[in-house]
Design a protein that fits this description.
The strands form five sheets. The chain has a nine-stranded mixed β-sheet with strand order 5-4-6-7-8-9-10-15-14, sandwiched between helices. 27% of the residues lie in helices and 24% in strands. The termini are far apart. The radius of gyration is 23 Å and the shape is globular. Helix 11 links the parallel strand 19 and strand 20. The protein is α/β, with parallel strands linked by helices and 414 residues long.
Length: 414
């Protein structure tokens, strides 16, 4: 009997069935977060969970930004009050740069990486050479837990020691690799340069950095089929590639939104914005957690048959705050200005310098580009909100780039 092409039946549900089941489960998760974490007891104190049963209701809940976690964790160590049981019996604690502290509960496949591993071709009995770090950060543990949940055996290689890793690769003859794509290329080339062979290694699941087409082609020229996944230490798996290689498919056990940077407002499908995730993790029940990463929803479903929402993958960072004339200007401030003027469809603040001083211009898409009164009103709002004087330029709808940038700092210095 042949193996299925998908990890479980959840991946091939009808999209409306998936949406209904996720939002039927969401009220209980919100109630759990309110009851079991001090952070959400405060943040969601006036929220009735039973009313949050569709996307529009979810979009009205407050955002928690990853960029805020360092300060929150300093005030309420170690997790900022976001973990359901701060004692975490039987769990692990990791530290990511920042520092940020993340829990790992004791559930099997806690980070949900098994789904991505399966899509990459990992199967029970495979030996996986895992080169993600096991030191401080959870990446090594994340991929190991997913592979082991499938019945794979894992060699915890960790980072560095390229020549020793190449020798071990040749001796152990693993079928699969996990790690960054750049190190996979280095490792395969080192095997070749040492005159060794590892024909058993045919599949890889990579993450942690971009996988441009040129790097993918270089790796696959060395006879390793490589797919990527998008995961974070806070949320676990967010999205993953399938063999179709057409976008990244959202994990089944979360709700993903794409919002305008600096806000909690969802953007239309296809528009670049910030990835916001709500999880069903009972240990770390993050509700509308803004990752700081940019992406966009792709239309349609994957040719592989998986029916969940697809995103275009990592497209940059949403944290676009910049200092102008000694004052920080934030995307949220630009949003405040635009909301004062409903005539504006979309805005983008461009910061530049003329060689001697900073200048900023707020480009606004409007129907009437010659509306001087509106231009002056937006100028006044920009100065009031940001405390920095700038200018406004009115442009036609559709003129601004679809790249998720609310603030574009194009200053150069010579």
């Amino acid at each position: 009997m042949s193996e299925p092409d998908h990890y479980d039946e959840l991946e091939i549900r009808a999209p409306d069935e998936r949406e209904r089941e996720l939002f039927l489960a969401l009220p209980a998760q919100i109630a759990h977060a309110q009851a079991q974490t001090t952070a959400y007891a405060e943040l969601l104190h006036d929220v009735d969970p039973d009313r949050v049963i569709y996307r529009d209701a979810l979009s009205r809940l407050p955002i928690t930004r990853k960029s805020e976690l360092i300060e929150l964790q300093e005030k309420t160590p170690p997790f900022g009050g976001f973990v359901a049981d701060e004692a975490l019996p039987g769990a692990k604690v990791f530290a990511s740069p920042g520092p940020l502290y993340e829990p790992e509960g004791d559930a099997s496949n806690y980070w949900r990486l098994a789904r991505a591993c399966y899509a990459a071709g990992f199967r029970a009995g495979d030996l996986v050479h895992n080169t993600f770090s096991y030191h401080f950060t959870p990446a090594g543990s994340m991929l190991e837990s997913g592979a082991r949940a499938l019945g794979c055996t894992v060699f915890p290689a960790g980072t560095g020691n390229t020549e020793l890793q190449a020798q071990t690769l040749a001796r152990l003859c693993p079928q699969a690799y996990t790690g960054t794509p750049s190190f996979l290329k280095i490792l395969l080339e080192k095997v070749r340069d040492l005159g060794l062979h590892c024909g058993s290694l045919t599949k890889a699941l990579v993450s942690g950095e971009a996988l441009p087409p040129s790097l993918r082609a270089d790796v696959e020229a060395l006879d390793v089929h490589v797919l990527q996944c998008y995961a974070t230490a806070d949320l676990g798996l967010i999205a993953y590639e399938s063999p179709a290689k057409e976008g990244m498919i959202i994990d089944e056990e979360l709700i993903a939104e794409i919002v305008r940077p600096g806000t909690g407002d969802p953007v239309p499908d296809g528009e670049v914005g910030e990835v916001v995730v709500t999880t069903f993790n009972k240990t770390y029940p993050l509700i509308r957690f803004a990752t700081g990463d940019l992406s966009a929803v792709m239309s349609g479903i994957s040719p592989c048959g998986r029916t969940n929402m697809r995103i275009k993958g990592w497209m940059g960072r949403a944290d676009q705050a910049t200092k102008v004339k000694g004052m920080f200007v934030h995307p949220s401030q630009v949003d405040q200005v635009l909301k004062r003027h409903p005539e504006v469809f979309k805005g983008r603040l461009v910061v530049m310098n003329d060689g001697t001083k900073d200048q900023m211009t707020l480009f606004c898409e409007v129907k009437d580009k010659d509306n001087d009164a509106l231009r002056k009103a937006i100028n006044d709002s920009l100065r009031e909100v940001s405390k920095v004087k700038g200018q406004t330029e009115l442009v036609a709808p559709g003129s601004l780039a679809n790249d998720g940038k609310v603030i574009d700092d194009v200053r150069t210095y010579t």
